[in-house]
Automatic annotation (TrEMBL):
Keywords: Flavoprotein, FMN, Membrane, Phosphoprotein, Translocase, Transmembrane, Transmembrane helix, Transport. It comes from the Bacteria. PANTHER family: ELECTRON TRANSPORT COMPLEX PROTEIN RNFD, ION-TRANSLOCATING OXIDOREDUCTASE COMPLEX SUBUNIT D. This is RnfABCDGE type electron transport complex subunit D. GO terms for biological process: transmembrane transport. The keyword Transmembrane applies. InterPro entries: NqrB/RnfD. Pfam families: NQR2_RnfD_RnfE (PF03116). One of its GO terms (cellular component) is plasma membrane. The chain crosses the membrane at residues 20-40, 46-64, 165-189, 219-235, 242-263. The keyword Ligase does not apply.
């Protein structure tokens, strides 16, 4: 009998042409508008951080693959996507070693320790932001030379609605332009890469909560980053349709409560991490049960 080497791989085994690299290329294209907006407003500071996160993410994954003796140094384009998203949530005033550590933590600890792409139970980018704040809160806090003058400038500054949507130098690199983020999200929807169930419910529930708290219902850019690129993460969000609605609702409510009542502008990222923990339960409760009749 002829001996044949059989390749064993996890399900599903149905091929439809949607290879990982094709999906990742679409995500890279969707991230480019917000990347360009961040570079436009923050210039060379943003470019340095974007380059640092992408290069570090690629090197970290390559070294990990070499450590576990995988044949290829880079198996897919997911490190580039992860590096770009990590740069989105980085402010430009932090030293360069902060985004480098964020990329290493997200790639090795959150992603690879749990089996690689699609196996992690928390969003890597959001987890890295929480890790940085918990470890280096003083470095992550925005430096203020004169608190009194800064407060007076904020109170006197009036930003138009168009400026808030199109873009303004406020927040992290990827949060400056809501329009650029929505363009990227629309591209992914048209390409069939993501569904709008989670993002729309996330934004709508957060807006309702902001209105309840008597705040401006035009949410900060962090909410749109979390809605478009984190509530749609394949590995850490529910796969069922109803589950995606539930996930968006819980995350949106949590994000607004943390942001407003907790005075924490990073509320959307904390909310994503918290809701990620409930993903298995949400999927279990929203999966249709099939009743089997037992015959005598």
């Amino acid at each position: 009998m002829e001996n044949r080497k059989l390749k064993i791989s996890p399900a599903p085994h149905i091929k439809n042409g949607n290879k990982i690299n094709k999906i990742m290329i679409d995500f890279i294209i969707a991230l480019i508008p917000a990347i360009c907006a961040g570079i436009y407003f923050y210039k060379i500071d943003a470019l340095k951080i974007i380059a640092a996160t992408i290069i570090t993410s690629i090197i970290s994954e390559g070294l990990w693959n070499k450590f576990v003796r995988k044949r290829r140094f880079i198996t897919d384009l997911s490190p580039i996507v992860l590096g770009m998203i990590i740069s989105f949530i980085m402010p430009t005033y932090v030293p360069l070693w902060i985004p480098i550590i964020a990329s290493i933590f997200a790639t090795i600890v959150v992603k690879q320790f749990f089996g690689g792409l699609g196996q992690n139970f928390m969003n890597p980018a959001a987890s890295s932001k929480a890790f940085l704040i918990a470890s280096w809160a003083g470095v992550m806090a925005k430096p203020v030379a004169d608190a009194t003058s800064a407060a007076s400038e904020v109170s006197q500054e009036s930003v138009s609605l168009i400026s808030k949507i199109v873009g303004q130098a406020n927040g992290s690199i990827g949060e400056v332009s809501i329009l650029a983020l929505c363009i990227g999200g629309l591209y992914l929807v048209l390409r069939g890469r993501i569904s709008l169930r989670g993002p729309i419910v996330f934004i709508m529930s957060a807006m309702l909560m902001y209105n309840y708290f008597e705040k401006d219902i035009l949410l900060p850019g962090a909410f749109f980053v979390a809605a478009i690129f984190m509530t749609t993460d394949y590995g850490t969000t529910p796969m069922t349709k109803i589950g995606q609605y539930v996930f968006g609702l819980i995350a949106g409510i949590c994000a607004s409560i943390i942001s407003v009542k907790g005075y924490n502008p990073e509320g959307p990222y904390y909310a994503i991490i918290i809701t990620n923990l409930f993903t298995p339960l949400i999927e279990y409760l929203t999966t249709k049960k099939i009743k089997i009749k037992k015959e005598a």
